[in-house]
Write a structure and sequence with these properties.
Layout: H1 2-8, H2 15-28, E1 44-46, E2 65-67, E3 89-91, E4 113-115, E5 137-139, E6 147-148, E7 161-163, E8 171-172, E9 185-188, H3 198-201, E10 209-213, E11 219-220, E12 233-237, E13 244-245, E14 257-261, E15 280-282, E16 304-306, E17 314-315, E18 328-330, E19 338-339, E20 353-355, H4 368-372, E21 410-414, E22 420-425, E23 430-432, E24 436-439, E25 443-447, E26 457-458, E27 465-466, E28 482-483, E29 513-515, E30 521-523, E31 532-540, E32 543-554, H5 564-600, E33 607-611, E34 627-631
Parallel strand pairs: 1-2, 2-3, 3-4, 4-5, 5-7, 6-8, 7-9, 9-10, 10-12, 11-13, 12-14, 14-15, 15-16, 16-18, 17-19, 18-20, 22-32
Antiparallel strand pairs: 21-24, 23-30, 25-31, 26-27, 28-29, 29-30, 31-32, 33-34
């Protein structure tokens, strides 16, 4: 017993005593703010959604994570967090911060992640991020920043990820990104920049991922991304006015992923031909209406192509030729009716997924080849829009059994009796109908009986005049009523030769003629020289049908042989007579009035004697000599 007591005996002023007391006090003084949660196992302090107006005191010194998001904090005092030497992540997002003073985060030497997005910050003064040299992730999205000044992010030499989008940015200073040698990802979505900040971006030599949106310029200028040799992912979203991508705009880049979405592109940009390393291309939500033959042939490494939300009515032959590594093709949300069998690359067996939801597919024999490939249609399979008996039918995966039992084609048939005759009055608005039925829906073409110009037509090749009537060829290609262009004829019918002379809607006659969506031919108004035989042609992949319409036009005077030139002469004579006769009548009326007035006044004197006083300074003169006589008319 005596020996045991001797071992426990020690002096109160020994270093060991104070060490033990310090350890005991530190363990007893682990305190957490009343409105927060502080799980000790992960050294975190969570104060989110607490309606806090100020940063709470007594935050544990051992905290690695401090979450103050979704509160009402309006300001943060300088060096408020300087005692939290172990802090690695600070979240101040979704508060009401309107400004931050330089040095506010000074002392947080271990801080890696700083989130201040969705506040009310209007300006980031230079030096506001000083004192946090190891920061790798900074998020300032969703504030009210309109400008990024020079040296805004100075001191952040280890920063690799910067999110600054969803701000009404109007200008980025050329030196805004200086001092960020390690930055790899930059987000600038939903801005209001007037153009690409080329000079500011060129200060980021290691940038590999750029998201840029909201730019108001209608052009993407040449060399817009010069000085970014390591850029691999470029996302340009929501440029409402972007309609032109210059051929050298992407020069100097070796992209693997490119997105140009929610813009105003009407065709695939030629600048893509230089991006031979592309593996993913997204052109969704653009009004692209046609695809050129072999327009994507240079992108041989492409694995994913998205063209959803466009205006594609069909996919013609060779549209995707050369894309031998394509795995995913997205054509959803297009008014798509059919896809040509040779539109896909020759090695289309490698294609796994084809998205066709939200299209207007005509489920007929033209789609049988598509079903034989057993493509995966995704979570939303396509639905038949035509013919009527299959409308609304869902096309499932592995639907090869639908052909040829369900997906069939029928040649067109014009329902009107043929030939039929129409007699109309000159000057009326006339519509010639041509109803047809068939699967797929037939296209309507009209052939006119003569050249709308008077006299013969001059051949561009021979320079001689022809008296042979000319055929004009129409093709219905749009669903909206429009003035139809009259292209060069490409065929002959019943021995009537082709003149080879194109006629456009620029001529006065052509502006009178419209092809309606139903395939009807409308004259507004009809003239005497429109009389003749019109041929309606209905065609689809299964065959064709035709019908003649004989139009007889009754002229204004009841004769069907009135020439337009004679009619114009008559109109000119009427107009001239209408102007000359009132003038002659007015002059004659004036003379009659003068004659009657003179007779009523009696005799009229034709001479008058006038006295005058001459200028003289001497003597007097004779009165009789100071008179002269004037004759009145």
């Amino acid at each position: 017993m005596v020996t045991f007591r001797t071992k426990l005996n020690f002096h109160l002023d020994s270093p060991m005593f104070f060490m033990c007391v310090g350890i005991l006090m530190s363990s007893l003084c682990f305190c957490c703010p009343p409105s927060c949660e502080c799980p000790a196992q992960d050294n975190s302090t969570f104060c989110r959604h607490r309606l806090l107006n100020l940063v709470p005191p007594e935050i544990p010194l051992s905290s690695h994570v401090l979450d103050l998001s979704y509160n009402r904090i309006r300001s943060v005092q300088p060096k408020l967090f300087s005692h939290l030497h172990s802090l690695e992540e600070l979240d101040l997002s979704h508060n009401q911060l309107s400004r931050m003073e330089p040095g506010v985060f000074s002392g947080l030497l271990k801080l890696r992640i700083l989130l201040v997005h969705h506040n009310q910050l209007k300006l980031l003064p230079p030096g506001v991020f000083s004192g946090i040299p190891d920061l790798t992730w900074l998020d300032v999205r969703g504030n009210q920043l309109v400008i990024l000044l020079d040296q805004t992010f100075q001191g952040l030499r280890e920063l690799r990820h910067l999110e600054a989008g969803d701000n009404p940015l109007l200008f980025i200073s050329p030196g805004a990104f200086l001092g960020l040698p390690q930055l790899q990802r930059l987000g600038l979505e939903e801005t209001k920049l007037g153009s690409v900040p080329t000079r500011a971006l060129s200060a980021l030599p290691r940038l590999s991922d750029l998201r840029l949106g909201g730019v108001t310029s209608p052009f993407l200028q040449d060399l817009s991304f010069s000085g970014l040799p390591l850029l691999r992912v470029l996302d340009m979203d929501h440029w409402p006015s972007l309609g032109t991508v210059k051929p050298l705009s992407l020069s100097g880049l070796n992209l693997t992923s490119l997105s140009i979405t929610r813009c105003n592109l009407s065709s695939v940009p030629e600048a893509l031909s230089m991006q031979v390393y592309l593996r993913r291309l997204d052109l969704s939500r653009n009004p692209i209406s046609d695809l050129k033959f072999g327009g994507l042939r240079a992108l041989r490494r492409l694995e994913e192509l998205r063209l959803s939300g466009g205006k594609l009515n069909s996919i013609p032959s060779g549209s995707f030729s050369g894309l031998d590594n394509l795995l995913i093709l997205d054509l959803s949300e297009n008014p798509l009716k059919w896809i040509a069998e040779d539109a896909l690359p020759s090695s289309s067996a490698i294609l796994e997924t084809m998205l066709l939801s939200g299209t207007n597919l005509s489920c007929d024999c033209r789609l049988c080849w598509l079903l034989r490939y057993n493509f995966h249609f995704g979570e939303s399979p396509p639905v038949c829009a035509a013919p009527d008996e299959l409308h609304g039918m869902v096309i499932p995966d592995h639907s090869e059994l639908l052909c040829p039992e369900r997906f069939t084609c029928h040649p067109p048939r014009i329902t009107e009796s043929r030939p039929w005759k129409m007699t109309v009055q000159e000057g009326d608005q006339v519509t010639i109908t041509c109803h047809s039925q068939g699967v797929p829906e037939p296209s309507i073409q009209w052939v006119l009986p003569h050249n709308p110009y008077s006299g013969g037509t001059e051949s561009p090749k021979s320079g001689t005049s022809r008296s042979t009537p000319r055929l004009s060829h129409y093709h219905l290609s749009s669903k909206e009523p429009s003035e139809t262009e009259w292209p060069v004829d490409k065929f002959e019918i019943q021995g009537i030769p082709n003149s080879g002379l194109p006629i456009t809607t620029a001529s006065p006659v052509m502006k009178r003629v419209t092809i309606l969506p139903e395939g009807y031919l409308q004259f507004h108004p009809v003239q005497a020289n429109d009389a003749g035989a019109y041929l309606c042609l209905a065609s689809n992949v299964a065959g064709n049908d035709s019908a003649w319409v004989h139009l007889e036009v009754t002229a204004f005077n009841g004769s069907s042989a009135v020439q337009p030139s004679l009619l114009h002469s008559h109109l000119l004579a009427v107009i001239t007579a209408g102007g000359v006769l009132p003038f002659i009548s007015s002059v004659a009326l004036c003379f009659i009035f003068m004659f009657l007035w003179s007779r009523g006044r009696g005799n009229i004197k034709h001479t008058a004697n006038i006295d005058f006083v001459p200028r003289t300074s001497r003597g007097t003169s004779n009165t009789e000599e100071n008179k002269f006589t004037m004759k009145l008319i």
